[in-house]
Amino acid sequence: MSPTKRHPSPAWFDDQYNNRARIPEHPAILQHWANASAQARAQLAGVLDVPYGADPSERLDIFPAAPMNRAATGALAPVLVHIHGGYWRALDKRDQSFIAPPFVAAGAMVVLPNHALCPAVGIEHIVMQLVRALVWVHRHAAEHGGDASRIVVSGHSAGGHLAAMLLACDWRAVAPDLPADLVGAALSISGVFDLEPLRHAPFLAPDLKLTAALARRLSPACMSAPRGWLVALVGADESEEFLRQSALITTAWRPQVLAVEAVPGRHHMNVLNEMAEPGSRTHRWGLRLLGLGPQPG
Question: Do the domain assignments include residue 230?
Answer without folding.
Answer: yes
